[in-house]
User: What shape does this take?
Amino acid sequence: MNSVGIDVSKGKSMIAVMRPFGEVVCSPFEVPHTSSELSALAKRLKSLDGETRVVMEATGNYHLPIAVALHEAGIYVSVVNAMLVHDYGNNSLRRAKTDKKDAIKLANYGLDRWLTLPEFSPEAEIRMQLKTCCRQYQQYSKVQTMLNNNLISLLDTVFPGVNRLFSSPARADGSEKWVDFVETFWHCECVSGLSQKVFEKKYQKWCHKHGYHFSEAKALEIYTAACGAIGVMPKTETTHLLITQAVSQLRATSTALAELKKEMLRLAESLPEYPVVQKMYGTGPTLGPQLMAEIGDARRFHSKKALVAFAGIDAPPNDSGQIAGNHKAMSKIGSSALRRTLFLIMGVYLQNAPVDEPVYQFMDRKRAEGKPYRVYMMASANKFLRIYYATVKAYLDALETA
Assistant: This one.
């Protein structure tokens, strides 16, 4: 048996091959992540006598090129969580750490866990693309929130409260009425400097140009607010530049988010479990694809408890001797992106209060018991995941047998 430990870094890896009782088959050597080098590595490993298994840590996207290449070459590859290997074999006070030592440690870990090493299986192309789109969507959402707050902060110095004058939802292309409005009427004096009738006509033309509904009552409300507003920053070209640049950045991010949302929905619709996921309360066209992306194929989990543990919302036992731990916190060792998506879905339950939904009934019962907010939210997410696993797995199994 040959245990191959691979310490992965960006663009290259350190490889060590060990056999039982500390026998070194190959001293640590470096391999770049190129097609020719990885092909040569696969041939070298396949030429070894006996069964060969490769062990590497999950390192974001860095490990994927070498893991996929070796898997496609027919070699048993196991990608393990870095936390499982971190403290393995650290019986030295010096705590020396090099790529060579890490590769040897991974190889020895593979020998000790030979029979329980999980085999690596590449994600389907569509699921991988959906997950990447989902992660990008979450990143852009953070940027959009930051830019949105920045623009409102700037507007508080030139036209305070203008964003609260509009309640129209964002369009399919990501544009919002208040953002489009402040691009033209970027200072309170742009409105208050005109007469009421002149502003009404100008506002009506603006609404027609941008495809918004015109209302005389809304025009009067805007004009009244502008006349009562105090612009701390003067109406100058510098101020105009600051506002228009902030609007431009926010609009570009909102457009990118809208395009990513469309692509996520298109990819999700091509997956077999999409219809049944969309029927689940709280998912919808935005959170549904994100949930599917983060979970992947539900059949890869051997039980609903495994899916809950993957999300990191399980509460491991904390008992010792005659002491039983009553206050058990969730582990948080799992997918933080999935926990975020579940938290947003639970927010939908909390906001709409669907009394006929079992998840909300469970949530309401926990609230009645006086449980803290974070406790009943994540406990409800735990129940939601269990329902998701049972529903989706049964649906996918039925499709296979049909």
